[in-house]
Amino acid sequence: MSIDDKTAAHVAKLARIKVEEDALPALAQEFNNILGFIEQLNEVDVEGVEPMVSVTPMRLKRRADEVTDGGMPERILANAPDAREGFFAVPKVVE
Q: Which GO molecular function entries does the Swiss-Prot or TrEMBL record give (predicted)?
């Protein structure tokens, strides 16, 4: 598939990119280069190749999914404007 100036102008309009008339041939050539590269990638045989998360094999660090208090309630409550009996104290909203 080859991209001409008219198609390049249409793509630029869809992307809401202002392209001057004299820059359209260069843009069309860039699109053609990109499509050529994609065609090269389509020629690669990937049958039986497992998808990768990363280029280096590594396991993700995991921790147990446990509910905790954070292990530092004093440090957390130190940031509170008002704390009582180990909890955040807030003004009464509903009577």
A: asparaginyl-tRNA synthase (glutamine-hydrolyzing) activity; ATP binding; glutaminyl-tRNA synthase (glutamine-hydrolyzing) activity; transferase activity
